[in-house]
Specification:
Length: 114
């Protein structure tokens, strides 16, 4: 990939934390946001293989997690509300979903990277 083909991207992981005292987690999703010329891009993707979640928490509400992915995706499409949802995500999920620190990278088109 030529240097000019690279896009500035930022991402953070969404972690399922069933017991905040133990501070154990499973990464269940990723949010990818574009920077520079791709600043309007934002999307989310959750795992499709829930075995690690169920191993850690056999009572995990997978329907809620799947609905959460759809809700986050919908909210990310509204650029005006994007910062708020990213900021409030942990509060909205009662700390069951925690957000990693944002990291940056260079990559292909954002939709291809996700």
């Amino acid at each position: 990939m030529a240097g000019s083909d690279k896009h500035e991207l930022g991402f953070f992981l969404l972690r399922y934390v069933p017991d905040a005292v133990k501070d154990e987690f499973v990464n269940v999703g990723i949010v990818l946001v574009g920077g520079g010329v791709d600043a309007g891009y934002a999307d989310v993707r959750f795992t499709r293989d829930w075995r690690r979640v169920l191993c850690m928490d056999p009572g995990a509400d997978l329907e809620w997690l799947q609905a959460l992915e759809k809700d986050i995706r919908m909210r990310l499409q509204d650029a005006a509300g994007r910062e708020e949802i990213l900021f409030r995500l942990q509060d909205l999920c009662s700390n069951v979903i925690q957000v990693s620190a944002t990291k940056g990278c260079l990559g292909a088109e954002p939709a291809q990277e996700l």
